[in-house]
Amino acid sequence: MFRTADGWLHLVVLKDSDFQTLCGLLDRADLASDPRFAGPAGRSDHAEELNAVVAEHIAAQPTAHWQACLTEAGLQNEAVQDYAQFAAHPQTEATGLISWLEQPGGDRLWPVPNPAGAPPLVSGAPEATAPALGQHTDEVLLQLEESEAAAAAEE
């Protein structure tokens, strides 16, 4: 995870060929030939040093610059997003991960994650509607009274 000039970027470099590519993008061929950074184990053993050098370069440009360069080079990367950015991301939309739901008393649609393995949530359906304040109070109190009565009967 690296700070950019205007945000944060997550970057994944595992293979030696990806490391070589990254070094080229950073104009740091010396890192690619440095024996300390040879192979994943070497990069892991010297991660603090390596990350400091990479961080300095990444911080000099905005996130969009690095996303374009890294993606074009075939390196895994993504901007760090807040929840609203994540919910509106094209990949999130394409996978149907989020349903945009109307809620009672609300004046906008709310992004709600769809439960894994279940059909997408639909506005107005009971499982997709937040309860109103106090809506279930009587039911909950009744269940508590029944539980207390059952516990007392067992004593």
Summarize the structure.
With 155 residues, this protein is α+β, with helices and mostly antiparallel strands.
What does this structure look like?
The longest helix is centred in the last third of the chain and has 18 residues. Helices cover 48% and strands 12% of the residues. With 155 residues, it is α+β, with helices and mostly antiparallel strands. It is built from eight helices and five strands; from the N terminus they run ββαααααβααββα. The strands form two sheets. Strands 1-2-3 form a three-stranded antiparallel beta sheet. It has a two-stranded antiparallel ribbon with strand order 4-5. It is elongated.
Blueprint of the fold:
Elements lengths: L1 E2 L4 E5 L3 H10 L3 H5 L5 H7 L1 H12 L4 H10 L3 E4 L3 H6 L1 H6 L2 E4 L8 E4 L23 H18 L1
Antiparallel strand pairs: 1-2, 2-3, 4-5
Order of adjacent strands in the largest pleated sheet: 1-2-3
Order of helices and strands: EEHHHHHEHHEEH
CATH class of the largest domain: Alpha Beta
Structural class: alpha+beta
Largest sheet: 3 strands, antiparallel
- Indicate the mean pLDDT: 92
Per CATH, the superfamily of the largest domain is formyl-coa transferase, domain 3
What is the CA-atom radius of gyration, in angstroms? 25 Å
Detail the poorly predicted runs: none
Q: Kindly, what is the distance between the CA atoms of the first and last residues, rounded to a whole number of angstroms?
A: 57 Å
Beta fraction of the residues? 5-15%
Helix content: 40-55%
Q: Shape, please?
A: elongated
What's the β-strand tally? Answer: 5
Q: Tell me the number of structural domains.
A: 2
- The CATH architecture of the largest domain can be given as 2-Layer Sandwich
